[in-house]
Structures are given as structure tokens and as C-alpha cells.
Amino acid sequence: MLEILFIDTIEKATDGLSMLQFFITLNFKISSNENIRTDLLKVLSEINYTLATGSFNVKIDRAYIFLKYNLSLIKESESELKPKVLKIVWLLNRHLNVYHKILKNVASGTLTYTEIMTNKMLP
Question: Chain-centre distance of CA 32, in angstroms?
Fold first, then answer.
């Protein structure tokens, strides 16, 4: 599920600049095994290093991964905002298509960081 929301509190601090946040929680469990969690953090770091926009993050204590993107913009009319939002949604969907399976396998322990790096599994 994709959540999109304006961060209202930023507008006063930035003289009218708005922030639109896109947030997707990946719906799978993360193993409680520390070695698996360490591998997951390493893989997330490798992935995020290559992404031009957005980032995958992990909330270890709640055991979920999320994809987040922040769009800074000056308040625009809805007709001007719509094409930008659609492009971001397309981009985030692309990130999910490329990385979801890898992240799910690492989070469950069926794939390791070493296997990913040795076999050059990341684009």
C-alpha cells in the first residue's frame, strides 16, 4: 500500500516550500536472527547507494522494511501536481519490482549478502 501525505509543518520553516512524502511498507517478516538482520542492513545500504531517488529503510524493532521518497515543491495546482505524483509512483513501483524479491529472501534468511555480492545480483 502506498501512502502519500503532505508534511504541513515544513511550510512555515521554509517560506512556502512543501514536502510531499511517499511511503510504502513491504509486507513480509524480518527474521529475528542477528546475522540475517546484519545481512539485510548491508543489502539495504548497497541498494540505496545506487538509487538516484528514494531509499529503502528498515525499522528493526518493529521488523519491517519501507520505501520512502520525499518530494519538495512549491504549492501547485492539482493539475500541475498530478503528473509529478504519477511519475514518482511509477519510479517507486520500479524500485519495488527490482528489489522486492531480493529483500524478501534476505529478510527470511534464504539469501545472504555474500551470495548477492558474489553473484552480482544487484543491478
Answer: 21
Q: What is the pLDDT of residue 77?
A: 63
CA atoms within 13 A on the CB side of 84: 18
Listed in order, strand segments (DSSP E) in the chain are 2-6, 17-26, 55-59, 64-74
- Residue 16 confidence (pLDDT) above 90: no
pLDDT band of residue 7 (cuts 50, 70, 90) is confident
Q: Which residue has the higher pLDDT, 74 or 43?
A: 43
Residues 6+ apart with CB under 8 A from 41: 58
In the numeric block, the cell 545500504 is attached to 45
The number of beta carbons lying within 10 Å of the beta carbon of residue 95 is 18
Q: How many residues does the chain have?
A: 123
CA–CA gap between residue 58 and residue 66 (Å, rounded): 6
Angle at which helices 34-50 and 78-108 cross, to 10°: 140
Q: Which three cell numbers stand for residue 65?
A: 522494511
